[in-house]
């Protein structure tokens, strides 16, 4: 019986691995699912309609592409081989995001690090970078848990519009 994945085991497993993005995605991603207590795609969606590997997506340019992993309402995820440009992977996801249902998070991974980029409507973009060597840090595990379970927990600070709308509610009148 396999031992459940934990952060130190994940670091040991993936340190010094040099795989292509496609090969890595279908091996690394299930380990991350296990790490955060999330069922793997096929355990949740046997049809690929809401959680799957290799989700076809139209680019804004009209060409077709593929998101390496996609979970409806949660994320689009792109893998790149070791030491590849993860910012380019994030840009690729931005190009697909409309056809992916505009997920709140865009995630790019190599074997040495993962970038979680927010994509919430009417909020500033925010990036969280997780180095493989720091995977077990409490904040990094919190970020990964949010990606898989509660994306809204990574929503950037409130918008100025929300602050303005809520301001009257915060005015406390002193009793007379």
Outline the structure in words.
The protein is of the alpha+beta class. The chain has a single domain, classed as tt1808, chain A, CATH 3.90.1570. Helix content is 35%, strand content 21%. The protein contains six helices and six strands. It has a six-stranded mixed β-sheet with strand order 1-2-3-4-5-6, with helices on both faces. The N and C termini lie far apart (70 Å).
CATH class: Alpha Beta
What integer is the average pLDDT?
Answer: 82
Largest β-sheet summary: 6 strands, mixed
* The number of domains: 1
The total of helices stands at 6
Which strands sit side by side, in order, in the main sheet? 1-2-3-4-5-6
Oligomer: single chain
Which labels suit this protein?
about 180 residues; alpha+beta; tt1808, chain A; 6 strands; globular
Walk me through the topology.
Layout lengths: L6 H8 L6 H15 L5 H4 L6 E8 L5 E8 L3 E5 L6 H11 L8 E5 L3 E6 L8 E5 L6 H12 L10 H11 L6
Parallel strand pairs: 3-4
Antiparallel strand pairs: 1-2, 2-3, 4-5, 5-6
Q: Summarize this, please?
A:
The protein has 176 residues and is of the alpha+beta class.
């Amino acid at each position: 019986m396999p031992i459940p994945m934990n952060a130190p085991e994940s670091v040991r497993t993936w340190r010094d691995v040099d795989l292509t993005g496609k090969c890595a995605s279908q091996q690394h991603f299930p380990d991350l699912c296990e790490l955060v207590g999330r069922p793997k795609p096929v355990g949740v969606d046997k049809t690929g309609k809401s959680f799957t590997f290799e989700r076809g997506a139209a680019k804004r340019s009209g060409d077709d592409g593929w998101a390496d992993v996609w979970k409806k309402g949660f994320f689009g995820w792109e893998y790149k081989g070791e030491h590849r440009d993860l910012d380019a992977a994030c840009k690729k996801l931005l190009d697909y995001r409309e056809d992916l249902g505009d997920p709140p998070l865009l995630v790019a991974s190599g074997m040495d690090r993962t970038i979680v980029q927010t994509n919430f409507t009417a909020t500033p973009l925010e990036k969280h970078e997780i180095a493989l060597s720091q995977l077990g840090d409490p904040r990094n595990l919190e970020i990964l848990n949010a990606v898989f379970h509660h994306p809204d927990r990574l929503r950037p600070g409130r918008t100025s519009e929300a602050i303005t709308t809520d301001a009257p509610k915060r005015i406390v009148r002193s009793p007379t």
